[in-house]
Amino acid sequence: MPPQKSSNLAINHIAISCVDLPALVEWYTDVLGFELVGEVQHHKRSEDPTPFDTIFVSYPPSLEELKFAILTSGNGVGIECFQFIDPPCKPRDEEFEFARAGVFHICVTDSNPEVLMEKVHEQEEAPPQAVS
Residue 8 CA to chain centroid, in angstroms? Predict the structure, then answer.
């Protein structure tokens, strides 16, 4: 019997990593209006290994410390945001390389995209760059 075709599934969340989680959360909440779900969490394996044995179980034992936040967009798609502290996350050395595979942008829908773009351009700094 051939396998059944899956239904058109909804996206629950994506995960990104960055080098400055508080700056990322501030930018996405202030500029794009995303909402922070709960609080920014800071976990150290040496102080409490429980999250590393349950929530972060898919990460290797070498992960000792991280900050973590969940943002949600207007249509409910979540963004899990990570700052890996030990070992530290490294920013990319080069500009975007279109010839390399992987996620390279997210897109938001706004009823007035021109005003949103002005808001983005008014920022003193560019939005935080994802690492993965």
Answer: 24
